[in-house]
Amino acid sequence: MINKLLVIFKKDFLTARRDAMATYIMVIPLILAVGITLFAPGLNDTTVKLAMLKSDDIEHIEYMKQFSKVELFDSVDELERRVEKRDDIAAIVPSSNSYEIILQGNESEIVEEYAVLLNTLYELGATKEETTAQLISFGRTVPPLKTMLVNILILMTIMLAGMLIAMSIVEEKAENTINAINVTPVSQTALVVGKSLFGSTVAMLGIIGAVLITGYYDINWFMIVLVGLTSMILSLIIGFLQGLSSEDIMEAAGSVKLLFLPIAGSIAVYEFVSNKWQWTMYWSPFYWAYKANTLILSKTADWGTVLLCTAMVIGLSLIVYILSLPKIRKGLS
Amino acid sequence: MKLLSNYLKEMKIAARGFYFYIEIAMAVILLAILLLVVSETSTSNRKQFVYNDMPQKIAEYLKDKSIKDGDARLTDATEFKLKPVEFVITNQETGETAAHDFDDEKIIKLETIETLDSSTGELAGTTYYAETEEDMIRLAYGESEIGATAAMDARGKVSYTYYLQGYETDKLKSLLYISHSESPSVINAKKDKQVVRTLGVMKTLNNRENLVPVFLVFAGSLMGFFIVLAYIFYDKAEGVIRAFAVTPSPIWKYLISKIFVILTTVVVSSSIITIPVMKGQPNYLLFYIFLIITTFAIASLGLLVASFFDSISKAFGVMYAIMIALLIPAFSYYIPSFDPLWLRFFPTYPMLQGFKEILLNGDAGYVLTFSLVFLAGGLVLFVLADKRFKKTLTV
């Protein structure tokens, strides 16, 4: 049995190497990880932008630069043209004895509040030296947005493995190799496990590489590999289901598109919906995988929670597998 | 005439397949999500943990006052699980560090107050009041949210100690410092005197409407790129493209008929999402012009990519990379302060902004300008794809 599994694994590896499939599953997460590393600082810096006149008091300009990104302009006309552009920026210009805040009118409320507060504090002569506040830091350096992006990347890689399995099965069906398996000593189970083994191995390597590139060296690696492998089971089942139940590439493409819904829904609910509505996505194994990964990447995970999440992923995957077993058998025959 | 019969034939095949109905079902699901799950007003899930180091009566008075003033509302107490944890905190001014090591595990219930937006009355954030400073610090660390101790001195002056995660920008830290260099009453009085001038009465999309351009671009036009590839590879596998070599019909008619099928699907699914949400607000003539032109351009890009490969698995890397690259402008759409110049060269950037303008019934000039750009770009890509297919017929 093990030998046959390894034969399928080896065959898939050779075929995939020819088609560059393995390279895609491994290299794409790495390229995206480099992208996240480059973009994350810019995404995290949500500082409000202010437009000011070059002729303004240098002290005023320097004051504002401590708290915002300042852009300087020669005239009020030029400054107003900048405010009218598509992004959010507020202007502060001298007006008689005071200052006037200019807005386009469609900025998010926080931009107006920020500009008003900054100008208020400037006019009051507020300085950091007079503060009564103290700041204490927990010393974390990774912003949650970066963690969210890396977590999405992990889910995308898992999904990518599933998508590729679906596509390769559809192609194998077109070439009648699935039928050919039935007249060889290789069992259907060995075919399923053998193909899964290949997809999981390559995708896991991609995920580990991506996590390292994005700088999460000191996370609990046992936890991340455990969650990665368990969520891979689900993705592989779905990949097989899509591949076996789709008659052609168009149908597989449609199924892939539908798969985006529970993934996007799980992320949206976990990140943006209040605690009392989290239960609405408990049915989605992607929700549990995402939750576990978030906790592991932010280094707040404990084994109890991680094991619960992985149990949910495995449990839900098994339910999907058992429900779809007749379909998988039919597809393989 | 030949083109029409090609298109009708393709539509009949598409209608027999599974995919066309998935598109419609997906549009209906997205519409249901927009109408039933996404509220029109945006709410914030910003959280903070506060410990009031002051006499109980004063703390209660301050909370009651903000509730009476309509700035906040009391809600059900929230349960939190505190787990064993150890961490080090650093004072930002002095650099002094202190180690915290908690080895107990307990469940606590915290008084919860929701702060409300002064203008909309919607939820702006949630404050949880801890009974001890230790619990507040553990929660701020464990939940990765901001924590604060509000301490009152003998003269009744309140000072704050904030517990930050560490990744906050220096600009934000500076703002926290100066926000506490004057008393809140002095700051509020001065704030009310600020002169704010808006350059025009600008319409804005509400929280629900704001999602429509994203669905239109990513679930509609962008998927057209993926689907046209799938269509072409399906036909390649069936030998349909090779068959064109022995027919009098030019290859471009076959390619354009594929794009027409995509356009039909995208127009139907986009209408299902847009019309019930936006009703009569947008300029629909402009909407359909922009939708058709952008879908044509993106589908032409798909055709060109398809012309270089003979199976979807071989094209997968390029296809996936292009789709991910086209998704990046969504960050700028949702985080307006992240708007680097290079991002504006991604086609989905003007697509998102263009649909936003159409839904707002705003800058038609912007929409028409980019319609021309996408039309020209789409034609160039289509001609290149046609040349590639004519040259190879097999790949």
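qc> The CA atoms of residues 164 and 173 of chain B lie 9 Å apart.
qc> done
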